[in-house]
Design brief:
- This protein is mainly alpha-helical.
- The protein has one domain.
- The protein contains 7 helices and no strands.
């Protein structure tokens, strides 16, 4: 019979990988369709998802930020290959930020649980609610940053820069929360 902590760790890891994989897949499909950049997007996505899975199984949590960085690089390819008239690339920044935040939190949580941390059922629900609430808040924060920058969620240099800055802020917040959780 599986240990409850290990089952929860596996579930959090699968959720993290699934969210990261879905985000990477969506980005590769929206990214540049020129052969070299498109192939690079697929490679980044595959290495991110497979690396995250292997790292969590082998109890190497340091792969979490590496996997996130690779998917963020996929988003950079989307921005690089997007025609200036397509608003969807910059408009996706808040959703990408929220997905990366949730994937990071779930990945770190999976790593914590694999190291033997125990969670009561009420604590599990509370943590899931916190991750979900903070992911929604990160989407709203990123959208607010884009809009506060005077951009209407459209493409262009300024909205793109604001979107990248917002996503970076959210990734920084995720790293800070993960470090804070590791100290607790």
């Amino acid at each position: 019979m599986a240990r409850p902590g290990l089952t929860l760790a596996a579930g959090a890891g699968v959720a993290s990988g699934g969210l990261l994989g879905a985000t990477a897949l969506a980005l590769v499909q929206r990214g540049p369709q020129t052969t070299p950049l498109h192939q690079l997007g697929w490679v980044l996505a595959a290495v991110a998802v497979l690396g995250l899975a292997a790292g969590l199984v082998l109890e190497r949590p340091q792969v979490v930020p590496v996997a996130l960085a690779l998917v963020a690089a996929d988003y950079a390819l989307v921005l690089l290959g997007a025609p200036r008239s397509v608003p969807g690339a910059t408009a996706a920044a808040p959703l990408v930020a929220g997905a990366l935040f949730a994937a990071a939190e779930l990945g770190w949580w999976s790593a914590e649980l694999r190291r033997g941390a125990r969670e009561a059922p009420a604590a599990v629900l509370r943590r899931l609610a916190q991750i979900g609430g903070l992911a929604v808040a990160s989407v709203l924060l990123a959208a607010g940053c884009i809009l506060a920058g005077g951009a209407v969620l459209l493409s262009g240099v300024i909205p793109t820069a604001v979107g990248v800055a917002a996503a970076s802020c959210v990734l920084g917040l995720a790293a800070w929360l993960a470090a804070r959780g590791a100290q607790a």
